[in-house]
């Protein structure tokens, strides 16, 4: 499909070694291979692109070369109702989802659209090959919509038990195919399936947290907040599965410090997980740079028990140089944990006070903010950014007919790689 070309000047840089290099071939790793890569933009001071639409308002700090159809941007507003409820006087809520009265128009109801519209517009795409994305649900819904709307070949790998998250206002185009790992599997199994696919010549990995376009797309939530507030917040609250969004927030924070107009401090990253699936919290509380051992059956059991299924990542980019551990240390942050019951109560509070529904992961973030406020972990007058990563889905589904997406193939989580490859080969 025809798209609007965008020129954005940037280089890639190793988060650990400071080596810079051009973005020529969908690079996912630094030359040393032991650190995340980041983007260094020629535009040192951020200015919204008023000539572009939707999400691409933030193109000055995005590694993109075109504007895709159908995008929407996060919206930040002063959260006085929620702030009053928890006793905070300077709370700002960054909302990603569907909420027309607030100017929020994300049709999938999640900030994963920010990732998809950035990744799918990144230079270095592979002509004639198919991008592969593994997801616990929301990411697949966003990438499926964006690729379907823009004619981009895509293979999605998702656990069968998470198919309830894969809906759209119309069937996806034939360029998007869905493969599942059988009931009882989890996100880690979907990642394994995607890795098998990427061993084949016709497929290539999107890259997950290693993809600079994914992280910088997530970082638009911070661009929204800082430009709305006029300064860097003191605290940043978000629920995490991989922690990629928090890493992205830290990276954006560093760019704003270099910008020089919005402050010289780091936002304290206050990230949260859903009990009992808390591997990031467990490692952080143990003072460990590496993730602690977690048995496969225990991990599956804990993942099945949480409401916020999208937070069930067993292998987050935690210990890698430039990853979540470094972000938490650099910002003086912390990892909190809330129960399903606490998150459900927070979701009900948000709907009652703000008039819109929010997703379980966003409710985990709000519950962690309530927890921190009650414990005196944040100053009452501190400037706080609450990242509501998904919302308005119930309303969108009430107002629009939706179609559930169905898999083309379903594999046992322990299916032999050769069998998987043979069946995948005929999909496209």
Task: Provide a short characterization of the protein structure.
With 428 residues, the protein is of the alpha/beta class. It has 14 helices and 20 strands.
What would your notes on this structure say?
It is a single chain. The chain has helices spanning 80-86, 112-119, 138-150, 187-197, 212-218, 220-229, 244-259, 279-285, 296-305, 324-331, 340-354, 360-374, 393-399, 417-424, and strands at residues 4-5, 10-14, 20-21, 37-41, 66-67, 75-78, 91-95, 98-99, 104-105, 130-134, 154-159, 167-168, 176-181, 203-205, 235-239, 268-274, 334-338, 384-388, 403-404, 409-411. Helix 2 (112-119) crosses helix 3 (138-150). The longest helix has 16 residues, at 244-259. It is an alpha/beta fold and 428 residues long. The strands form six sheets. It has a six-stranded mixed β-sheet, with helices on both faces. Strands 14-10-11-13-20 form a five-stranded parallel β-sheet, with helices on both faces. Strand 15 (235-239), helix 7 (244-259) and strand 16 form a beta-alpha-beta unit. The mean pLDDT is 95.
């Amino acid at each position: 499909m025809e798209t609007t070309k965008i020129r954005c000047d940037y280089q890639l840089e190793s988060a650990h070694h400071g080596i810079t290099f051009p973005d020529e071939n969908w690079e996912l790793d630094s030359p040393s291979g032991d650190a995340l890569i980041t983007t260094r933009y020629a535009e040192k001071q951020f200015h919204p692109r008023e000539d572009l639409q939707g999400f691409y308002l933030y193109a000055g700090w995005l590694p993109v070369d075109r504007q895709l159809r159908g995008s929407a941007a996060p919206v930040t507003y002063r959260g006085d109702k929620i702030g009053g409820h928890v006793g905070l006087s300077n709370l700002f809520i960054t909302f990603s989802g569907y909420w027309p009265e607030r100017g929020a128009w994300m049709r999938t109801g999640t900030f994963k659209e920010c990732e998809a519209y950035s990744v799918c517009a990144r230079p270095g795409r592979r002509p004639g090959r198919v991008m592969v994305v593994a997801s616990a649900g929301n990411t697949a819904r966003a990438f499926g919509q964006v690729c379907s709307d823009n004619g981009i070949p895509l293979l999605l790998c998702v656990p069968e038990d998470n198919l309830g998250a894969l809906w759209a206002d119309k069937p996806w185009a034939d360029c998007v195919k869905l493969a599942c790992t059988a009931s009882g599997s989890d996100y880690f199994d979907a990642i394994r399936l995607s890795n098998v696919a990427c061993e084949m010549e016709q497929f290539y990995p999107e890259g997950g947290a290693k993809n600079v376009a994914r992280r910088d797309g997530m970082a638009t939530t911070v661009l929204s907040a800082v430009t709305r507030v006029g300064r860097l917040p003191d605290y940043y609250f978000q629920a995490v599965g991989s922690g990629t969004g928090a890493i992205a927030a830290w990276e954006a924070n560093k760019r704003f410090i270099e910008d020089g107009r919005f402050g010289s401090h780091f936002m304290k990253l206050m990230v949260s997980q859903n009990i009992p699936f808390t591997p990031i919290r467990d490692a952080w509380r143990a003072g460990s740079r590496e993730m602690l051992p977690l048995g496969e059956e225990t991990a599956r059991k804990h993942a099945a028990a949480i409401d916020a299924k999208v937070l069930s990542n067993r292998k987050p980019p935690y210990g890698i140089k430039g990853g979540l551990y470094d972000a938490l240390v650099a910002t003086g942050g912390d990892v909190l944990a809330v129960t399903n019951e606490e998150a459900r109560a927070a979701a009900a509070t948000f709907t009652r006070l703000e008039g819109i529904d929010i997703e379980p992961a966003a409710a985990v973030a709000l519950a962690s903010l309530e927890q921190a406020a009650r414990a005196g972990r944040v100053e009452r007058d501190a400037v706080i950014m609450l990242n509501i990563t998904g919302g308005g889905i119930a309303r969108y589904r009430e107002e629009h007919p939706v179609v559930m997406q169905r898999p083309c193939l379903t594999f046992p989580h322990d299916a032999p790689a050769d069998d998987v490859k043979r069946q995948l080969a005929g999909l496209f």
